[in-house]
Amino acid sequence: MPLKDKRFRRFYSMQLLSDLGNWLDFTLLILLISYQWGLGEIAVASYIIVYGLPWIIIGPFASVFVDRWSKKKVFIVTLSLRILVVLSYIIAPNIYILLTLVFIKGILASLFDPARQVTIKILIEATHLSKAVALTQLSLNSMKVIGPSLSGLLVAIIGFKTTLIIEALLFLFALLFALAIKIPSQNNENESSPMQKTKKPKFIDELKEGFSYIIKNKKLLLTIITTALSFFIIFLYDGLIVFLSQDIGLSEAYFGFLISFVGFGAITGSLLLGQFSFWKSKPLTTVLLSFLGSGIVIFLMGTGAYFPKYFPVFVFFIFAIIIGALNGTQNVGYGFILQKETPSYMLGRVSSVAQGLQNFTMLSAPLIGAFISRLLNVNAVFILAGTLAIVISTIVLFITKIRDYDSNSKEELYQHQSNI
Fold first, then answer.
1. What gap in Å lies between CA 291 and CA 64, rounded to an integer?
2. From CA 42, how far away is CA 39, in angstroms rounded?
3. Contact by Cβ (8 Å): 155, 163
4. Residue 262 CB neighbour total at 10 angstroms
5. Which residues contact 211 (CB under 8 A, 6 or more apart)?
């Protein structure tokens, strides 16, 4: 089991504290923008866009250095700077200064997350990889439960400024665990880049190597593209959940609980999938079926808001749990494919490119969602998002079945071809 390893326990503790801080942050700033400052859909959409922008314009290039640098140093530097950014939120006088700080924090996240992906593969043997991925998703998803509800509760009791100080302390404790982690340079001393074996690689060559590997590995390519489209659909409606909750009569606190129900469902989905191995032979199919199921539920949420007589408020909390569970299984499947299909020496670049593509597709999504919401209403956005998810997942499932893309890992094949 991964948690029996002291190094992974410290690494996992760092993840938990960092993820909790991130979800306090995400929910806190949405509440600040929408409830406290009284700004509308465009402001919330701008916040989400600015946070994702660094993944596109900086992440893929910075990932080359993440693969080169000590992962421990990446964690230490990014966590230290995040503490300063969070404390700076306190004195942000308006949305423009706040968005500048959010952009900086996004840069730090675009460095931290690829380093996290690489560290998982370095610390964990292949036989326990799926459980380590499930634990990582558990960290992310459990904080979706604790973070939003805790954020809403803390704001109601002690206010925004004190809650931000608590968030900074969470990152400080995460930093202490990062300082205690011993991370070897690589899991297998024989696993290194073929390019590095022959010469000192140039920056542009290493960047091209990451893109080339993704294009050659059709299973990985299809997984990354599908996940990016999934993120586009999620962010089409995600920033509007707060307004949907207002339309159905939920207060600030209950909005936090609604988001927490999504996280609770995601925990359940991640835990259940981590307990079984039947899906490992067809992980891409698992991702696509989860995508299809979430599309159906999103469609029902939008439809239900039109007919409150037949869809009472508690039904939306049930929908939230189901969406969370399906997102949890989808993310575990995606993480497993990413880890299994990619050599550790290239994982920083591959994961950063994947994240960059996800953020690129979702950059326009919040504004499109806000525009449709203004043109029609919030409910229409949910119906459109659900329809897109159903159509895309069905098409990709058909292609995967016909072309047999959901086959065994191609990492070993690539290693062999690269050494010829």
1. 31
2. 8
3. yes
4. 24
5. 353
Helix (H) or strand (E) holding 233: helix 218-237
Selection from 407, 377, 389 nearest residue 305 by Cα: 377
- The structure tokens listed for 166 are 């608590």
* Contact in structure between 80 and 175 (CB atoms under 8 Å): yes
**Extended strands (E) in 79-229:** none
Q: How far is CA 130 from CA 9, 71, 187, in A?
A: 16, 21, 16
Tens-place pLDDT, residues 358-368? 777 777 787 78
User: What's phi and psi for 125, nearest 5 deg?
Assistant: -70, 155
Structure token digits, residue 47? 């916040």
Compute the mean pLDDT over every residue in the chain, rounded to the nearest whole number.
80
pLDDT tens-digit profile of 141-171?
677 667 777 887 888 888 888 989 999 999 9
How far out from the chain centre does Cα 17 lie?
Answer: 16
pTM of the predicted structure, to 2 decimals: 0.71
Residue whose C-alpha is closest to residue 255's, from 30, 47, 21, 89: 30
Vertex 31 angle, CA 29 and 34, to 5°: 105
Of all residues in the chain, what percent are helix, strand and coil, respectively (each to 5)? 85, 0, 15
Residue 29 is predicted with a pLDDT of 87
CA distance to 256, 296, 305, per residue, from 311 (Å): 20, 15, 7
Which stretches of 275-346 are DSSP H helices? 283-306, 313-341
Structure tokens at 68: 């080169």
Cβ–Cβ under 8 Å, residues 260 and 368: no
Domain locations in the chain as residue ranges: 2-181+202-418
For residues 7, 10, 11 and 12, what is the CA-based torsion angle, rounded to 10 degrees? Answer: 120
Those residues with Cβ within 8 angstroms of residue 228's Cβ, 6 or more apart along the chain or in another chain:
354, 357, 358, 360, 361, 362
Specify whether the CB–CB gap between 52 and 243 falls below 8 A: no
Residue 369 near residue 381, CB atoms below 8 Å:
yes
Minimum mean pLDDT range among 32-36, 124-128, 223-227 = 124-128
DSSP annotation of 199 reads: S
Give the pLDDT band (50/70/90) at residue 412. Answer: very low
Q: What are phi and psi of 358, to 5 degrees?
A: -60, -45
Amino acid identity at 115: A
2-181+202-418 classified as CATH 1.20.1250.20: yes
- Candidates 287, 141, 273, 295; CA nearest to 224 is 287
